[in-house]
Specification:
Layout lengths: L10 E2 L11 E2 L10 E11 L4 E7 L7 E4 H8 L12 E6 L19 E7 L2 H11 L7
Antiparallel strand pairs: 1-2, 3-4, 3-6, 4-5, 6-7
């Protein structure tokens, strides 16, 4: 007779909403690895020396993902109006405490600074983004 052991219960990621299956740690998945999340809200933050896209997802709730305008432009061709990203899918890998950042400094906090990311726009969003990158308006 063949018997199997039940799979170990996954550990909920501390600090994130309970009940989100995509945010559980197991032996094969951690928040540091890339996984798809749905973008629900995008704000643009303008600071003295840089512009940031502040991205919120269903899976991370109130925890934002910060991308520079250069990162968004490189991935999509958009130079402004980052709200077009709402509804797109994003996969993100964050630096962990102790990792060496691109500037040579040591990362001091887990899951804040984006290491790698992927954006997947729907066909509709791709068309809007293409038009926006050429300065056209789809609404006027």
């Amino acid at each position: 007779m063949l018997t199997t052991k039940p799979a170990p219960k996954p550990e909920i990621v501390p600090g994130y909403p309970v009940g989100l299956d995509r945010l559980i740690r197991s032996s094969t998945h951690s928040l540091n690895s890339l996984f798809d999340m749905k973008i629900t809200k995008v704000r643009t933050s303008v600071k003295q020396d840089k512009v940031l896209a502040v991205i919120f997802t269903e899976e991370l709730g109130d925890k934002p993902i910060f991308l520079t305008d250069k990162q968004v432009t490189a991935a999509t061709g958009l130079k402004a109006n980052f709200s077009i990203l709402k509804g797109a899918d994003i996969s993100v890998e964050f630096f962990k405490k102790g990792d060496t950042l691109l500037n040579g400094k040591e990362c001091t906090e887990d899951d804040v600074i984006v290491k790698d990311f992927e954006l997947e726009l729907s066909d509709r969003l791709n068309n809007i983004a293409a038009a926006a990158s050429f300065g056209a308006s789809m609404f006027g």
